[in-house]
Amino acid sequence: MRVTMIGTGYVGLVSGACFADFGHTVTCVDKDEGKIARLQKGEIPIFEPGLEDLVKDNVEQGRLSFTTDPSAAIRDADAVFIAVGTPSRRGDGHADLTYVYTAAEEIASLMNGYTVVVTKSTVPVGTGDEVEATIKKKRPDAEFAVVSNPEFLREGAAISDFKRPDRVVVGTEEERAREVMRDLYRPLFLNETPIIFTERRTSELIKYAANGFLAMKITFINEIADLCEAVGANVQEVARGIGLDNRIGKKFLNAGPGYGGSCFPKDTLALMKTARDHKAPIELIETTVRVNTARKQKMAQKIIDALGGNVSGKTIAVLGLTFKPNTDDMRDAPALDIVPALQDEGARVRAFDPEGMEEAKHLLKDVAFASGPYDCVQDADAVVFITEWDQFRALDLDRMKKALKAPVVIDLRNIYRPQEMAAKGFRYVSVGRP
Description:
This protein is of the alpha/beta class. The chain is 45% helix and 14% strand.
């Protein structure tokens, strides 16, 4: 099938490359001339394991291309995906749908023949109705269907998530559109992946409900971690004990400094706004947002307390800046709250991240960026782990201890075992463990 992807951000680029790998002919469209030029040269603007090779292979096979001109791409397409950004709107936290509606107008003016317009961007309930109305107003003669097809991609594992998903959700009541979507996802049908066909509004809400629940699950285990510290229990063993219950599940039960990233912060805010607008407030989500925001400040205080309550003039080495490993994404990363809070108390911060430092340089002020983990900890008064990159899991602890001015480790991701760190002579502080 002929597929056009409007937007070459994280979702659009990964989805386009994966659809091409399914055998479809995919054109990715973006207004950013610099980004398209880089993609045409084989340069990937984001860090995602396996994506560079996937893009390269499908470009060489002639199934994947990139352009700034949407004319032919939309005119010839069987399906056009809207995969543009929907950031939080200033003031009320609602999703900013400006780019979605702009894309809808552009599609309306260019499409030719029956076209399935698929909203891949995360959008509030009812957005599909507005996209449909926008297209009908501009092209009352057009044959088309608007479908909701939310993405459930985890950064760092997006290709696997697309090709081997837990489920695919498709929101449409038009059988002709369903057939197009079945053809698009045919390889997954053959693998017996659950494909949920539902109403468009239900599909839109499924995405928000999923992210809201996962954000709540993370926040829950973080609160349990605080209780564990107070009573002398171990949060990792609590998480395992409850996670083996199939009704709960073990994923997203890792205590840490709070959630961040491109999805959970903005999606929980948008869900709150939608719920309030419809006079059905979701107090659990509202509490989750409030607690997660406070969590990041609490982690900064945890670091300060570990250094005797005063960090003025001290050098703190921070290992890991991105919101999670295997991505260069700094959006709403806990480090963006923790580092300035330490600086406000007079600390000097030196940091290292395997992939996120270029973006971090635009977001963090007065931070010294190191060339590697051992360079980062040299002569520091303490080291703080904020992101659990694999390369931080097997550091030479003797070398690290020798490099530090004082053997103080604050591990906000529970990378190491307390017994091991104590045996090495570290003063070790972790999350939710005695």
